[in-house]
Amino acid sequence: MDLHGKTVCFLGDSITQGCGASRPENSFVSLFAKAHPEAAVINCGIGGTRIAAQKTPVSPEFEHPFFSRVEELADDAALVCVFGGTNDFGHGDAPMGTFEDKTADTFCGALRVLSEKLIEKYLNAAVVFFTPLHRTGEDVPSHRADGDWTLSDYVRAIRRNAEHYSIPVLDLYRVSGMQPQLRAVQEQFMPDGLHPNDAGHRKVFSLADSFIRHLP
Description:
Elements: E1 7-12, H1 14-17, H2 28-35, E2 40-45, E3 77-83, H3 86-91, H4 107-121, E4 126-130, E5 142-144, E6 147-149, H5 151-165, E7 169-170, H6 172-175, H7 183-189, H8 198-213
Parallel strand pairs: 1-2, 1-3, 3-4, 4-7
Antiparallel strand pairs: 5-6
Helix pairs in contact: 2-8, 4-5
């Protein structure tokens, strides 16, 4: 994808915001901006936020679900990259729901609401999703009103939603090369088991950059 003179928005949570990097300029979004000086790159990451709304609010700064922030994104964006889901698994409380849900009351429904808002706003632009990275504790089910769900369930929901809307997906869960359940990997790339460090952000940048460069 040619980004010359284009605006790119990264909509996400703390990883997009740059948490884990030693300095803001070492985050994957900042690295992407440095690699594409011809583009206007906007970081729209807010730590602690989720794709779905929290039914029982925890902290005001976390209560900005992705679908509620679409209106704030640059109107002239040529590309919007959505990177979320790990907080929905980690500390969200919305039910998983089903693919048929069409309201933001469940994770699956919020994915659909988010996708349709983005598609309608950016009919002549590109929208892509990134799946969550692996994390420690990902196989310990999170209890929700409609069952117990692991991180892989959230990843599958993101993939299925993207397939339905014909949205390209960078599947970091499959291809990041970072599985922090292995001690050596955690120490090298994700010391806290969740947020990439500088080396981890470089890996995410490299994969995102290659993926975006090959978009039609």
